[in-house]
């Protein structure tokens, strides 16, 4: 305000001078704050250093996708080859197989797995006896803490032809035994059932929390209007948890390409490869088993970038539709 | 909520309760069957299709696996990685989480973005492998710990917890002349024991379940943790192998031995689960609260 009343145009030197003093002031404030919080910066330094070395350096390390990387030459010494590895990837028949497998497994997760925790939470919410609810929750949360190796191993001992109980039961009922483990048409059902078994119970936690925050008066009002239990669920509970459902769906879409390396790798074998191979297992085999570091990194980079674009897109879509989004 | 006593409501309750009971049983029965069979004789497993309590209780499967050096070695590796890894991760995560919970920190938003971005994008398997190799961790147990020092999600749960502690707590400590480290170790940590316990258990379970990093970074079979051995014994011995080089020379183990190895690979989780269970729902929810 004062400046306007003076009406003297500032010379360039003066503007510069003012800017300099301003930034100087800012910098000295920053310095003061850093000095004051020296110990705090010291505390977070090791954590940030870890993230820098093991998370950010690998991100920069992805430039070897554009090189013919030789471990003994390092990044500085290896030859640049441009997009050659990407060309090779997109023209290989493996690429279409992997892409198709990835999309199919993703679709199974969204269409079959995703709704299950929501339905389970609605059902759990309708249980009137608290101790009974707790008991069931304790039972269905448990598998989440088992490793994929344990989950796959349990399926193997149950499903094997060599004394597994499932084939035992089939035989008892006079049905034909099924070689679940070698028959590639059983790969997808096994994959999704194992995910449901391990994660569906755990997945209810967040929905149950959302349901718990619904105003009980809404149910009273609905009851007065003659709504039965299903209608209450449909018109009150579900809309109340809609935004949580959308956020989790976004997260899931962002995870399209994260189908679980461990899980798939454990189920993968030479007989089901044509339906089971996904980007991560392909990267592992091409890169570490066959030593094609650059090519495998190119595959990984493709996957990472597509994944990132999907998260950003899904988030944008949610925000556009008036939901909160994840960032 | 007023209890609805209409007939339709009762039928609804009955069906709902029955269904949920069935689901819960389906969830735990496979594992109970595995535990039961691990104590049964081979003959009984072959004879009965489903087992919960074996009629002839035997420890022979366990005796067998504990008599082999490989299993014992793997158990020690897993215990070592779990204990040391959990302590290390908790040390780093607590320091970072507390630092970031302080609102007077300049640049906190940028630092949080730096951290959260690692959840959205990563360098992938190969570049990470190269860094692990260049930092000299290949074929050492440190490779199972150092590259996963902090789980960002766990760290944010801790940070949220610290942020929600009453501000007066720190201020009064400051007036009494405590430094930042003093406040953290003498005030904040003792006041946050439930959160610390929960996150420790989360880390502990992850380290005990570690598998992928072992197959990526350890080629020396003597350093394999239990989970890798479990795959060798159960998955590969069923007659399918992705890579024939991973076959072992020993004859395929019997069903009861496989069951016993599964139980051994899960025991610590069964032991901590009752303690874990008290806290985890709360912990998992805290983590989902946005800043």
Distance between the termini of chain B: 32 Å
Query: The biggest beta sheet of chain A, please?
Result: 2 strands, antiparallel
> Total number of helical segments of chain B?
13
Number of strand segments of chain B = 0
Largest interface: A-B, 101 and 104 residues
Q: What's the CATH architecture name of the largest domain in chain B?
A: Orthogonal Bundle
The number of domains of chain B: 2
Q: Give me the Rg of chain B, rounded.
A: 24 Å
* Unreliable residue stretches of chain A: none
Overall average pLDDT of chain B: 85
* Spatial strand arrangement across the major sheet of chain A: 1-2
Helix content of chain A: over 70%
Shape of chain A: flat
Helix content of chain B: 55-70%
Estimate the global geometry of chain B from the Cα principal axes: globular
CATH-assigned fold name of the largest domain in chain B: MetI-like fold
N- to C-terminal separation of chain A?
Answer: 38 Å
Content of β-strand of chain B: under 5%
Question: Structural class given helices, strands, pairing of chain B?
Answer: mainly alpha
Q: Would you identify the regions of chain B where 5 or more consecutive residues have pLDDT less than 50?
A: 238-249
Transmembrane segments (chain B): 12-32, 74-98, 110-130, 142-162, 183-208, 257-276
Keywords (chain B): Cell membrane, Membrane, Transmembrane, Transmembrane helix, Transport
GO cellular component, one term (chain B): plasma membrane
Membrane topology (chain B): Multi-pass membrane protein
Supply database-style keywords.
heterodimer, A: 327 residues, mainly alpha, two-stranded antiparallel sheet, 18 helices, 1% strand, flat, B: 291 residues, MetI-like fold, 2 domains, 69% helix, transport (chain B)
